[in-house]
């Protein structure tokens, strides 16, 4: 049961009462477009705030820079904050019923744990989990059903491993990582040699994957082990679903990659990297810190200056947006050019 007064008390350093009185009843979280009495909503834009007030949401969290509608009833309790998104990230977990999924449940009798594996305190291992020899799992980790952790892998404290995850041998995960279903960490990198008859001979992948603290990896993502050394993911980095990181890559701290992001082997990506969906980075490319890529971009060369980029070939974002805006007019412009050339008795080049 979540009450408005409990939210005010727990997040008093983040939220400040602005209007009205805390409602007495239990709250539920709702989107602005589908809210009503009894709901808690977050409004980061003026139109969202107006809509939430019109729909009589019981509690509204909004920016203090916005304007409250005139004549707003005191039955609508408004909290202001300097950062609506951060408030959502901290308050919404109170309403997440899935939190009980991660309560300590001990070691399931139908799990397989090698005698040499070392497990810390309050570790949960669900049914049909396989934990290999010399694996180290720190305190308060949760390993969900049907996951595999191979020999010599290391997990830091408070990691959450969702069902059907594969963590390959020698992989290292830092503290508080969350790995979603069907993620593969430490699969072989893609390396082959060809003989004179073009037969493919596999190159053994002898390295490992190292992942920093507080990394979250979305469902279906694959991170390949290095050929000799390490594939590295920096602390605080977040992957959406269905991403791919090839062998020998390095991705810096606090990056965030939307779904379908793919990076080829031995690329080096700096800190605070942001990528839209379905973006591709070529092999051996170096991208400096603080780079933002639009969705469906393709990086084929080094990016040495921080900033926003997009397109293929990659160009600064303003130029990319101008190109996109021009595309619908290309056919009309070609027709106009053709008429001009005809008027000037000039032959249009093939």
Written description of the protein model:
This protein is of the alpha/beta class. The chain folds into 2 domains: 4-95, Udp-n-acetylmuramoylalanyl-d-glutamate--2,6- Diaminopimelate Ligase, Chain: A, domain 1, CATH 3.40.1390; 105-323, 3 Solenoid (UDP N-Acetylglucosamine Acyltransferase, domain 1). The protein has 5 helices and 37 strands. The strands form 5 sheets. It has an 11-stranded mixed beta sheet with strand order 8-11-14-17-22-25-28-31-34-36-37, covered by helices on one side. Strands 6-9-12-15-18-23-26-29-32-35 form a 10-stranded parallel beta sheet, with no helix packed on it. The longest helix has 14 residues, at 330-343. The N and C termini lie far apart (72 Å). The mean pLDDT is 97.
Structure keywords:
alpha/beta; Udp-n-acetylmuramoylalanyl-d-glutamate--2,6- Diaminopimelate Ligase, Chain: A, domain 1; 350 residues; 2 domains; flat; UDP N-Acetylglucosamine Acyltransferase, domain 1; 10-stranded parallel β-sheet
């Amino acid at each position: 049961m979540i009450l408005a007064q409990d939210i005010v008390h727990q997040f008093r350093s983040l939220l400040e009462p602005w209007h009205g009185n805390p409602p007495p009843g239990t709250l539920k979280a709702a989107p602005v477009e589908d809210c009503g009495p009894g709901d808690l909503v977050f409004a980061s834009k003026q139109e969202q705030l107006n809509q939430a007030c019109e729909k009589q949401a019981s509690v509204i969290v909004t920016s203090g820079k916005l304007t409250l509608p005139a004549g707003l009833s005191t039955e609508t309790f408004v909290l202001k904050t300097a950062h609506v998104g951060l408030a959502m990230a901290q308050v919404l977990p109170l309403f997440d019923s899935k939190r009980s999924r991660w309560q300590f449940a001990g070691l399931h009798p139908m799990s397989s744990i090698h005698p040499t594996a070392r497990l810390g305190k309050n570790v949960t291992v669900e049914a049909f989990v396989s934990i290999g020899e010399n694996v180290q799992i720190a305190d308060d980790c949760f390993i969900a059903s049907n996951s595999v952790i191979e020999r010599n892998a290391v997990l830091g404290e408070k990691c959450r491993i969702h069902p059907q995850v594969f963590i390959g041998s020698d992989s290292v995960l830092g503290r508080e990582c969350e790995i979603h279903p069907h993620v593969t960490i430490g699969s072989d990198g893609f390396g082959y040699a060809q003989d004179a008859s073009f037969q493919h001979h596999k190159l053994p992948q002898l390295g490992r994957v190292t992942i920093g603290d507080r990394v979250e990896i979305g469902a279906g993502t694959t991170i390949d082990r290095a050929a000799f050394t390490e594939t590295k993911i920096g602390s605080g980095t977040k992957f959406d679903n269905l991403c791919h990181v090839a062998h020998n890559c390095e991705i810096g701290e606090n990056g965030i990659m939307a779904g379908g992001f793919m990076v080829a082997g031995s690329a080096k990506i700096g800190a605070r990297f942001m990528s839209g969906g379905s973006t591709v980075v070529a092999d051996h490319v170096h991208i400096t810190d603080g780079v933002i890529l639009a969705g469906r971009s393709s990086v084929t060369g080094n990016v040495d200056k921080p900033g926003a980029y997009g397109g293929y070939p990659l160009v600064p974002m303003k130029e990319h947006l101008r190109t996109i805006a021009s595309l619908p007019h290309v056919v009309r412009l070609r027709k106009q050019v053709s008429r001009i050339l005809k008027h000037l008795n000039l032959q249009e080049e093939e």
